[in-house]
# Entry
Amino acid sequence: MQIPLSVMDFLDRAELVYGDRVGIVDEPVQPAESWGELSYRRVAGLARAQAAGLDRLGVGPGERVAIVSHNSARLMTSLYGVSGHGRVLVPVNFRLKAEEVSYIVEQSGASVLLVDPEVAEPLAGVVAKHKFVIGPESDALLYDFDHAPRRYEIGENDTATINYTSGTTARPKGVQLTHRNIWLNAVLMGLHFGAGDRDVYLHTLPMFHANGWGLPFALTGLGAQHIVLRKVDGAEILRRVERHGVTFLCGAPAVIQMVLDAAADWDGPVPGRDKVRIIVAGAPPPTSVVQRIEAELGWEFMQIYGLTETSPVVTVNRTRHEWDGLPAAERAEKLVQAGAPAIGNQVRVDDQGEVLVRSNVVLDGYWQQPQETSDAIRDGWFHTGDGGTLTDGYLTISDRKKDVIISGGENVSSIEVEDCLYDHPAVGEVAVIGVPDEKWGETVKALVVLKPGADAGEAELIAHCKQRLAGYKSPTSVEFRDALPRTTTGKLQKFRLREPYWANRDRKVN
# Structure
């Protein structure tokens, strides 16, 4: 017997087994009216009502529904109300500017667009056939509690979500994740990190990031409780841990640093000692930070490596009993490795040092970009663009082969930033690179050659980018050069530009 895997499997089980349990505690303070505490039965009812509302709008199976939102119960419910009922959810980074969001809506062909009230004004010019500002008025239009939703056959290889990621092109690519991709990734996350119905999960990780790394699915199916956090703040994270008994959260290294800074000023014992485990990804933090997590917070540090294209889990790293007796510094050295392949994943490093992945969690393809898909998946292996080494089954990421900068856990396409800077009338040549940063891991630096006779300052060029790009994509510094190194064929040698900033570092990522 073979039954198609579906994202609805997770909510169906939660409603059946944990229907009366509070499943989601929505962010209490937000521009849209908070949904408060929701039982899993109520979440399932809202998902059905949303699907019926899409029926009423004439949004058929396979149509795309885009949502630009901070973390919220509405966004989480849409994973089921949209994807679980035959449509395709397109979760969009709320930090993007109007031009970037317009491209995603147009490229995905989304017929419905939901916009968080906080970004409604900046995104006023973004159009879609059906556009709503999230809140009570849109709730009344989008949720039909009077009719049962139509039932559509869903195949496990059907696209469930399209998640846009910055890569080696100037425009983001739409990563098609299938129900099968999402289902298996969620099970792997739950299995490797020991999730269960006693867990209380704090959503510090944006839900649009590879669908919250699959944890909204995994933890729902297991009956855990979700605490929605709209905006990341170190002290607020500690308050939520204390108030709700949080046991589980995720974040980039920058989030950890915020928590450590807040813990230094915390009055009394730090909440969650010996109870909280935190998964880190985006880039490994320094070993000193891992030791501080254990010593100052008393939380368990865990790590994954992955990409949006891999749903995202590729490798996992969690302390094992063989390491229990090691000195803290030595154990930290082991924990900052990217980890060993998750169950069912195959990882290898090719002759050029690039990390390759073969797995059921690898994307179906890039939306309407067959050439990019065939470039990324060759001979049955997904090419990550990251450089690394494998030792005793454990992967260490050593360099980034593709022109992507990861700042605070967000992917930044250097090409996209370069294209923006080239639009400035004074810029003749430009190279954008990632340089080490204590807070964000990496930050964006622009190396600029001005046109003959032209004049422009650092502040002017940064402001130029911030008008067109999301803040995290804009350079934090600009250096002016007389020339940029190129090969005899004219190719820019970014590795030479990066070298001085990464000198005396074992890894060329931070």
User: Anything to note?
Assistant: The first strand starts at residue 22 and ends at 25. The two ends are 47 Å apart (CA to CA).
